[in-house]
Design a protein that fits this description.
alpha+beta, Molybdenum Cofactor Biosythetic Enzyme, Chain A, Molybdopterin biosynthesis moea protein, domain 2, 4 domains, 6-stranded mixed beta sheet, 419 residues, elongated, 30% strand, 7 helices
C-alpha cells in the first residue's frame, strides 16, 4: 500500500519577529505544520488492538444478525393478548441461543424462549419468566406489556452496510468486539509510527555503567521510550551519544533510516556543547521555538534527511511535561490518529500561589481525598520524584494570578495523556 508524502524541510520555520511563543500558538502551529507520515497495512482484527484505523469500517453483517430475546421468558404474538389476565397454552419445544425453534408459534400460544435465542416466526413480544406462572401447561400473567417488549430487533445496534468505526480511531478492546460482531475479520490500519529516542551529553551514563562523581544517570531515555510504547507507537532506542558533532550527525542519520520521527533530549539550546542544535543548524532546517512555558522553554524542531526531529529540554521534568503537552499530540497527528489534546477538569485548589504573568505553568499535582488539587512541595525542575508523586498536572494560564485555597484550577489527570 502507498505511503503518504514526507513533510517539507521548511515546515517548522517560524515567521520573523517571533520570540516567545505562547503555548496555545505553539500547539496551533504544530497542528498546522504536521501531517500523517505512516503507510497503511492490512491486519487481522484479532491483532488490531491499539492500532490506528486508516479507513472507515462498514459493517458486513447486522448486529444483532437476527431478532433475539433479551431475557429468559416466554414469547407470543401481541395480538394474542386479551383483557387484564392472560392465559396462553404453551407450544411444545423451546428456543435457545444456538438452538432455534423449528416451526411457527401460532396465535393464541406461547413458547419458552431463552436469552439470546432467535425469535421464532409468530412471536413479537416476550414476557419475563419472573412475571409469570405456569400451571398445567398454561402460561398465566397480568397484562402490562407493550408490543415488542424484551425483543432485540435485527440490526438494532449496527445494520449491515452502515458505518461501524471511523478512520483515525485508536482501536480499543471494545472496538475489536464490535468489529467481530459485524463480521469484519481484517482492517486497514496505519503502520505504527516509529519514534527514535536519543539522549545526548558527556555527563550522562546508563544505569548499568560505571559512573564518575561529575556524571549523572540518564533518566530521560527510559522515560521517553516507555511513553512512546504506551502511546501505541514503536520505540526505536538510539541510546546515548557523547557531545561529539560527528557522532551526533551519525546518530541522527541512523535515526532517519530506522524511524519516522526522532525525539531527542538535551543539547538543543545554543551552548558550546549543544551539538544537536549545531548539527541541525548545519542542515539548514533548525528552528528553536522559545515557548512561554514552565517547565520547559526551548523546543528544537527540524528535519534531518526528510525525518522530523523533535528536540526536548534535557531536564527530566521539563522533558516529561513538554513531551505530554507538545510531543504527544504531534506524534498522534503524524501517526494517523489525528490531533488530540487533553481534557481538563476544574478542581478547588489545595494550595496558595502568586503566579507571575508571561508564561504558562504546569505544576505536578494530584487529587486529594477531598477532591481538591494538591501540588508537589517543590517546583524544582530537577525533582523527578514529584512526577512519581503526582497523578496529573495543574495548569496555570499565561496571565498573572493570585491563587488561594479553594479557588478553581485546571487539572489534567495523567490518563488524559494516555498514561
Amino acid at each position: 500500500m502507498s505511503s503518504p508524502p514526507k513533510l517539507s524541510n521548511d515546515c517548522f520555520a517560524l515567521p520573523p519577529g517571533v520570540h516567545w511563543t505562547p503555548v496555545d500558538e505553539t500547539l496551533a502551529s504544530l497542528r498546522e505544520r504536521v501531517s500523517v507520515v505512516t503507510g497503511i497495512e492490512l491486519v487481522p482484527t484479532l491483532a488490531a488492538g491499539g492500532r490506528v484505523l486508516a479507513t472507515d469500517v462498514v459493517a458486513r453483517r447486522d448486529s444483532p444478525p437476527y431478532a433475539n430475546s433479551a431475557v429468559d421468558g416466554y414469547g407470543f404474538a401481541f395480538t394474542s393478548l386479551r383483557g387484564h389476565e392472560q392465559a396462553l397454552p404453551l407450544a411444545e419445544g423451546r428456543a435457545a441461543a444456538g438452538g432455534p425453534f423449528d416451526g411457527v408459534v401460532h396465535a393464541g400460544k406461547a413458547l419458552r424462549i431463552l436469552t439470546g435465542a432467535m425469535v421464532p416466526e409468530g412471536v413479537d413480544t416476550i414476557v419475563l419468566e419472573e412475571d409469570v406462572i405456569v400451571e398445567g401447561g398454561v402460561l398465566k400473567f397480568a397484562m402490562g406489556l407493550k408490543k415488542g417488549a424484551n425483543v432485540r430487533p435485527k440490526g438494532e445496534d449496527v445494520g449491515a452496510g452502515e458505518g461501524a468505526l471511523s478512520a483515525g480511531r485508536i482501536l480499543q478492546p471494545q472496538d475489536l468486539g464490535l468489529l467481530a460482531a459485524v463480521g469484519v475479520d481484517t482492517v486497514e490500519v496505519h503502520k505504527r509510527l516509529r519514534v527514535a529516542v536519543l539522549s545526548t551529553g558527556d555527563e550522562l551514563r546508563q544505569v548499568d555503567e560505571d559512573i564518575a562523581p561529575h556524571q549523572i544517570y540518564d533518566a530521560n531515555r527510559p522515560m521517553l521510550l516507555d511513553l512512546i510504547g504506551r502511546w501505541g507507537m514503536e520505540a526505536v532506542d538510539l541510546g546515548h551519544v557523547r557531545d561529539d558533532a560527528t557522532m551526533v550527525r551519525q546518530m541522527l542519520t541512523r535515526g532517519a533510516q530506522e524511524a519516522d520521527v526522532i525525539l531527542t533530549s538535551g543539547g538543543a539550546s545554543a551552548g558550546d556543547e549543544d551539538h544537536i542544535s549545531a548539527a541541525l543548524q548545519a542542515s539548514g532546517t533548525l528552528n528553536l521555538w522559545r515557548v512561554a512555558i514552565k517547565p520547559g522553554r526551548p523546543l528544537a524542531l527540524a528535519m534531518w534527511e526528510g525525518v522530523p526531529v523533535f528536540g526536548l529540554p534535557g531536564n527530566p521534568v521539563a522533558a516529561f511535561v513538554t513531551a505530554l503537552i507538545f510531543a504527544r499530540p504531534t506524534l498522534l497527528e503524524l501517526s494517523g490518529a489525528g490531533w488530540s489534546e487533553p481534557r481538563a477538569t476544574h478542581l478547588p485548589a489545595a494550595f496558595s500561589k502568586s503566579k507571575k504573568p508571561g508564561r504558562r505553568e504546569y505544576l505536578r499535582a494530584k487529587m486529594d481525598t477531598n477532591g481538591h488539587a494538591e501540588v508537589f512541595k517543590s517546583e524544582g525542575s530537577g525533582r523527578i520524584s514529584g512526577l512519581c508523586w503526582a497523578d496529573g498536572l495543574v495548569e496555570l494560564g499565561d496571565q498573572g494570578r493570585e491563587i488561594t485555597e479553594g479557588d478553581p484550577v485546571r487539572y489534567y489527570p495523567f490518563t488524559e495523556f494516555g498514561l
